[in-house]
């Protein structure tokens, strides 16, 4: 039986009346699989391949009675994605009389209340809203989820290797106690590799096996590489870069992805300035990032979706990497090297819906950035994506979930708490001894309290955490300041050292001069600044993967580089000429005398090796890891010969971080709930997650 014939009459009528020519390949696979297997499944398919319908069609097809409870729970990493999917599902469900309800902090409260009175249909929700419900209103969870048959998790790759993913796995465990049946789970993703498939086999916390349904997609990929060498203090290369972007924007609708919020603003401001003086320009320009007001972001998204042929360019951060529908995008600009192949794949996949061609322009202005970009492009063309390392022993998330669980159950004895934690596999790598050590520490710090009946409840020190809606999230946000021009809120900026009145900043695509900063109120007051004046520049950084660094070395020393232009070949050759291979290691010669060690290792391994050198010699090593892959210090050539045969033990690393407070803080300050964890376990966490000992040991052992 073909997939279309497997659907019920209502769904077949919807597809026919909507004018679909046929089901997409991934939709056919999912419909057939859902009927022939009881397994969970993950749909891995490119952007705009019909993944949403591939999940919902088989799930909806299996349900006969929509009025006896919420039958499908859709979990999204973003509220914006929920709002987008709500519109898509309404067109599918309205004619069939199926209720679709959004449930998050910005959703309509009257519709939530109506759903609680008569649970039915489909609910679209975030992990944070599930957490809030279980903590504050567990009776609502029992009402809503009792009859749930399906749980759909969108953009599931965004949860892998993240604390938020650990939290979601724990929430799936906890939801299982509220459902009368074991729901089937579906994950959706456009960016997965083979190692991710292995991790996803255990992601869903139930007794079903998980299968992967893959559609590689048929879109062609095109790319152009632009290299404009940047001299120190030279603005000419930036003008050349902007010329490329601006001229392309006159012909195509584009997304421009720099690697920092500051560069988003810089490029957006330049494009707007050019457009204001170009009477022949009919394109529209926007910036899009998390520090802009919601309405500003929504305006850009809606304009793009409803553009109807009008050209637009949105310069954005990762906020537009995920599957928010912004209509047809002709091409993508990657400004500066992406940190990994998965990021580039996600970004380039946003283009080509109309043309069937994923079109990329890569722009670089520095040799190492050029080399890193070439490496990611090659790997993407070969279909080799970076793996997402799992979080090992996430004690901080466990501590958060312990507080959440004792509140949900209105107190738990230690044995009962351990039983709750052992329901699924999420905490299986954390021993019972470690769990007890964590509980004891939380009791001593008064994050937990022990009652006379031996029940654990939330303690005095937990109350400040619980007063804020922030308790429900695993997001860690740097302190931010709200920026106002007169009475108009124009966005937020990070509170960074060195920011002063009189400085200029870029925000919402414009240049502003700071008039004053009110630190207690967390406000900045600004006025428009003159175009071209210098501005305060913040710095963002992301880790680069080992697979990218290894390909960078391969390209640099490849005999045949005929695929690149003469200028690019010349740049690569010049870069290679500055690097010497000596006694098994690569070194970059410098004017300062001491050569730099060029490792061609990923960011995490570079940090590990730098710590190892400091542990061994007492010398602090600087890392240049944004695009280059170099360690800088004195006598590194001699040190590497001495360290190559030295096996640094786990205990030595433990003692090192135990005495280096600043390093321990630096490696854990991104963890929102690290203060709940005892120092001993926090050091274990750093060694397990922030270091890459296996790669470094392999690197040293392979030296000739």
UniProtKB/TrEMBL annotation:
Q: Which domain of life is it from?
A: Bacteria
Q: Recorded GO terms, molecular function?
A: helicase activity
Keyword ATP-binding, does the record have it?
A: yes
> PROSITE patterns recorded for this chain?
HELICASE_ATP_BIND_1, HELICASE_CTER
Is Electron transport a UniProt keyword of this protein? no
Please report the stretch or stretches of sequence annotated as the Helicase C-terminal domain: 237-396
- Which keywords does this Swiss-Prot/TrEMBL entry list? ATP-binding, Helicase, Hydrolase, Nucleotide-binding
Q: Where is the Helicase ATP-binding domain?
A: 32-210
The UniProt entry, under InterPro entries, shows: ATP-dep_Helicase (IPR052511), DEAD/DEAH_box_helicase_dom (IPR011545), Helicase_ATP-bd (IPR014001), Helicase_C-like (IPR001650), P-loop_NTPase (IPR027417)
Q: Which PANTHER family match?
A: ATP-DEPENDENT HELICASE LHR-RELATED, ATP-DEPENDENT HELICASE LHR-RELATED-RELATED
Annotated protein name in UniProt: DEAD/DEAH box helicase
């Amino acid at each position: 039986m073909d997939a279309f014939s497997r659907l019920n009459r209502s769904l077949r009528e919807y597809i026919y009346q909507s004018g679909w020519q046929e089901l997409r390949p991934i939709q056919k696979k999912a419909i057939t699989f859902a009927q022939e297997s009881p397994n969970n499944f993950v749909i891995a398919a490119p952007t705009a391949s019909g993944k949403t319908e591939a999940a919902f069609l088989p799930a909806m097809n299996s349900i006969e009675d929509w009025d006896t409870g919420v039958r499908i729970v859709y979990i999204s990493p973003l509220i914006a994605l929920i709002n987008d999917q709500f519109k898509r599902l309404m067109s599918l469900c309205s004619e069939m009389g199926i209720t679709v309800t959004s449930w998050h902090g910005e959703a309509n409260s009257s519709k939530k209340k109506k759903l609680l009175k008569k649970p039915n249909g489909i609910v679209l929700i975030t992990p944070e809203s599930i957490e809030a419900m279980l903590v504050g209103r567990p009776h609502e969870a029992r009402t809503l989820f009792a009859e749930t048959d399906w749980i759909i998790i969108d953009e599931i790759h965004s949860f892998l290797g993240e604390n938020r993913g650990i939290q979601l796995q724990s929430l799936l465990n906890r939801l299982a106690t509220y459902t009368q049946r074991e729901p089937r789970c579906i994950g959706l993703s456009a960016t997965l590799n083979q190692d991710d498939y292995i991790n996803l086999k255990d992601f869903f916390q139930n007794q079903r096996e998980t299968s992967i349904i893959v559609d590689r997609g048929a879109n062609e990929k095109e790319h152009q590489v632009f290299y404009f060498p940047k001299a120190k203090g030279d603005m000419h290369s930036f003008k050349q870069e902007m010329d490329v972007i601006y001229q392309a924007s006159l012909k195509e609708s584009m997304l421009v992805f720099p690697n920092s919020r500051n560069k988003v603003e810089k490029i957006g401001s330049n494009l707007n300035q050019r457009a204001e003086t170009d009477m022949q320009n009919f394109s529209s320009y926007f910036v899009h990032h998390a520090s802009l007001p919601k309405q500003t972001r929504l305006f850009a998204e809606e304009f793009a979706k409803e553009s109807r042929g009008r050209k637009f360019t949105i310069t954005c951060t990762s906020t537009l990497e995920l599957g928010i529908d912004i209509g047809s995008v002709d091409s993508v600009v990657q400004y500066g090297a992406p940190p990994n192949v998965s990021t580039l794949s996600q970004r380039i996949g946003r283009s080509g819906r109309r043309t069937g061609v994923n079109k990329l322009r890569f722009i670089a202005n520095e040799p190492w950035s050029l080399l890193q970009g070439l490496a990611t492009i090659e790997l993407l063309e070969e279909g080799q994506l970076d793996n997402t390392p799992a979080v090992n022993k996430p004690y901080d998330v466990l501590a958060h979930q312990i507080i959440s669980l004792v509140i949900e159950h209105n107190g738990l004895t230690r044995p009962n708490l351990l039983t709750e934690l052992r329901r699924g596999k999420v905490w299986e790598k954390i021993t019972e001894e470690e769990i007890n050590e964590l509980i004891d520490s939380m009791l001593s710090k008064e994050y937990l309290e022990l009652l006379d009946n031996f029940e654990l409840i939330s303690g005095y020190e937990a109350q400040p955490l619980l007063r804020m809606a922030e308790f429900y999230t695993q997001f860690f946000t740097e302190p931010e300041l709200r920026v106002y021009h007169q009475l108009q809120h124009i966005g937020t900026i990070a509170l960074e050292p060195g920011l002063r009145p009189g400085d200029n900043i870029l925000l919402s695509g414009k240049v502003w001069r700071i008039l004053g900063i009110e630190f207690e109120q967390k406000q900045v007051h600004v006025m428009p600044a003159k175009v071209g004046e210098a501005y305060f520049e913040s710095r963002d950084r992301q880790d680069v993967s080992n697979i990218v660094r290894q390909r960078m070395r391969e390209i640099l020393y490849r005999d045949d580089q005929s695929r690149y232009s003469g200028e690019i070949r010349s740049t690569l050759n010049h870069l290679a000429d500055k690097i010497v291979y000596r006694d098994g290691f690569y070194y970059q010669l410098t004017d300062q005398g001491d050569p730099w060690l060029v490792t061609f290792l990923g960011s995490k391994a570079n940090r590990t090796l730098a710590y190892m050198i400091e542990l061994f010699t007492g010398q602090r090593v600087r890392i240049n890891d944004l695009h280059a892959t170099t360690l800088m210090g004195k006598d590194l050539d001699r040190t590497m010969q001495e360290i190559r045969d030295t096996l640094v033990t786990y205990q030595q690393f433990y003692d090192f971080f135990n005495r280096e407070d600043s390093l321990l803080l630096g490696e854990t300050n991104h963890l929102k709930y690290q203060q709940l964890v005892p120092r001993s376990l926090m050091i274990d966490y750093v060694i397990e997650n922030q270091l890459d000992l296996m790669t470094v040991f392999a690197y040293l052992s392979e030296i000739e």
